[in-house]
Amino acid sequence: MLNLNALTSLLETGVTNTGAAQQAGGGASMISSLLIMVLMFVALYFIMIRPQKKKDKAVKDMLAALKVGDRILTIGGIYGTITQIREDQVVIAIGAQKTPMHMARWAIKSVEDAPLENDAAPEV
Description:
Blueprint: H1 4-24, H2 26-64, E1 71-74, E2 79-85, E3 89-94, E4 99-104, E5 108-112
Antiparallel strand pairs: 1-2, 1-5, 2-3, 3-4
């Protein structure tokens, strides 16, 4: 067993060695902190920024590929068929009466694949 004097001398030696290690390891501590920050930014890029850029590119491509006759859904929930395309506007026909509605191009949420059943011509 260790006696009290030996334990005290060990603690004093440990304290002086730790102080020297802290002075010498200060640069290493800063480098590790910097490395952690870089790793956090890389993770943030791959988790948040990159998927958002992909989504924005897909929306931009979809808006650039619009053509007359496409069935669309607006951000307001209105379904219609494109009848005219201008530079930053589209004219869509809505409902069985083909009511024209002018919309901003950015207000188009998606292009629909299938026509709606209630948009068909009324049977007489």
